[in-house]
Amino acid sequence: MRLFIAEKPSMAAELSKCLPGPLSRKDGYIITGGGVVTWAFGHILRQAEPAEYDEKYKKWRIEDLPIIPATWNLLVVDSCRKQFAIIENLINQATEIVHAGDPDREGQLLIDEVLDYLHNEKPVHRILLNALDEKSIKKAISTLRENQDFYNLKQSALARARADWLIGMNLSRAYTLAAQRAGHRTTLPVGRVKTPTLALVVRRERELAAFKPEEYFTVKADFKHDNGTFTAYWKPGEEQPGRDSEGRLTDGTVAKALLAKIKSVSSGQIVLCETAEKKDAQRLPLSLSSLQVIAGRKFGYDPQLVLDTAQTLYERKLTTYPRSDCDFLPESQHGDGAIILENLSDGSHTELAGWAAEADRTIKSRAWNDKKITAHHAIIPTVEKCNLAALNDAQKNIYFLIAQSYIAQFFPVHVYNQTRVELEHNGEVFTASGRVVVELGWKKVFAADTDEKDDKKEEDGGMLPAMVKGDITELLSIKADKKSTKPPVRFTAATLLAAMKEIHKYVKNPDLKKRLKDVSGIGTEATRATIIKELIDRRFLQEEKKKKYLIPTDSAYLLIDALPDEMTYPDSTALWENILHRMAEGSENLAVFLEQQAKFTSNLCNIAKEQSIPLKEGHVCPQCGQGVLQPRNGRNGPFWGCSRYPECKGAYDDDQGKPKKPEHPCPRCKQGSLQLRKGKNGDFWGCTRFPACRASCDDDQGKPRLVVQASAQAITAP
């Protein structure tokens, strides 16, 4: 018996339809003429919690950290026990198994971990379902691969899961306990990807708070040439006075003198004139991240909505697998273009129909490249015809973006002539540039999209008159425009997701920045949206209603300020992602990586043990001076105890909702209080912070005397 194990019921249903019939539906599986199809519900096994390794870990204690499992345990998810038993029984009956998890890292792991858990030794094949239409599924069935080919992908997924466990379980406990010692009643969840992502927003908010606009000047002039007029911009020399560290002219006096100098001479000369033909290749089709960023910019959709919508379109067989980090296409699929374009030109969407009808089906853009394909490819329409009227607004818009990018692959490259001019006027250099479109090409498809328009600087103007080196120019007018630097823009969910993908822009180390340009950022296509949503749901980020800007909460500042740079800057996390990618390619070792993660976790736990977090506003403990008094209930009623218990056992009676202040504060350390004690020579008063403070004095009819003996030195009490 051939057993197919799909990742979820919907995939199993579509797969079974494409196997020889008849179909017979049973409880938890489907019998077909081509084998039995069963399914998981995503991960039906979970990693054991610390307390499931040892009961003592139920209570969070700093002395128990770090927790490093000697062997990694998996447990069946309670809600999946019935389906797990069905899968186990079917595996026992099978002669061969077909792994039908999603074609990505997590999809590989969640079926493999079931097979490993059950010690399966039967042959396992792998089916890669990038689309759920009948043609794609039947083609995938006919081209099964050996599951062993994806062993390294599973190792990468295991490395990710176990590293996340080590960081999350240990550092969340370590820094939550550190915060609680300072009186903060909160849980600080620390994550390998989540924490540096949150830190990006916190730092951006602080940049905004500290921002002070700086004024500067741009000098531009209009010149007359025999063939027409044009605008050029002043180009300062290397030794030009009055410039700031960014090269901007900030000195108004210098700007004024510059204008006078240039106006004193009427004519100048072209000293450089270059024209080159340039070509822009078709923009690649969409990966999930690029789809989320574009949909956020164009429609204001948050990343999770985009993912959910793309998943729905996939399950309705209208588009291919959504959780793709690839923006290339298999060369074998180029032939499907004729069918897809024919479907899109049916007129149900005016713009898509017009572009599809105009597309040249013989054009093969750079997107078709087998060398760039791994387990999945870019998100594109399937050969199934889409009835747009049956879709809701979000589904229509997401389908439109996917189809638009696909159609663009069948338009010519964009061709233009770029001209760059330099002229010299009384010893000063001015520059101008312009472009002439030779062939609009694929940009015709995106002509109406503001995000696709050339993000040209003001200096990169339009048409320039024909000119050559040596031509004479005449000054018509000149001015210095006063401008101000602009503050950085707050993140939205879409732009934060883009920052996670282009994380090299935010690393501190310049050498590492260069290395990380080729890395796919932090997180995965499937998890980035979930991470951002979790930060919002757990109230570390608030989303502004109108423009949906992300604002960090007090808890976000507390968490980021408590952690060392290793966890709040993306450098380490991005390097780990790079290692995970290399592990999927077979060039990194799982055991070595986890050993490094364990050492990293242990080091940060040790730092947390000594971490001094600012005390929460409230009643500082008079006994230790390092904790905060918190209301508690005891056998004899309410009282106030130190947040650093059991290290500090300071306790005070409740006085109408406040801790009863010590009657005799210690005049020496000013943190403890004097308490009556019995000594060898009778009663005396000593500091509650003994032995840290050795202040003591004699008893004077139930009160401490005014002179306090501290060691051999007498201190007069105030």
How many helices? The count is 20
How much of the sequence is in beta strands? 15-25%
CATH architectural name of the largest domain: Orthogonal Bundle
Would you tell me the structural class of the helices and strands?
Answer: alpha+beta
Span of the ends, CA to CA: 91 Å
Largest sheet: 7 strands, mixed
Strand order of the largest sheet: 2-3-4-1-7-8-9
Using the alpha-carbon principal axes, give the shape. flat
Low-pLDDT regions: 452-459, 708-718
Number of separate structural domains: 5
What value does the average pLDDT take?
A: 90
CATH topology of the largest domain: Topoisomerase I, domain 2
Describe the structure.
The protein is an alpha+beta fold. The protein has five domains: 2-143, Rossmann fold; 169-207 and 490-609, Topoisomerase I, domain 2; 218-274 and 418-436 and 457-479, Distorted Sandwich (Topoisomerase I, domain 3), CATH 2.70.20.10; 288-410, Topoisomerase I, domain 4; 629-716, no CATH class. It has 20 helices and 26 strands. The strands form six sheets. A seven-stranded mixed β-sheet has the order 2-3-4-1-7-8-9, with helices on both faces. Strands 10-11-14-13-12-15 form a six-stranded antiparallel barrel. A hairpin with a 2-residue loop joins strand 3 and strand 4 (35-39). Helix 6 packs parallel to helix 20 (590-609), helix 10 (303-315) crosses helix 13 (393-407) and helix 14 packs across helix 16. The longest helix has 31 residues, at 151-181. The radius of gyration is 34 Å and the shape is flat. It starts with a strand and ends with a strand. The model is unreliable at 452-459 and 708-718 (pLDDT under 50).
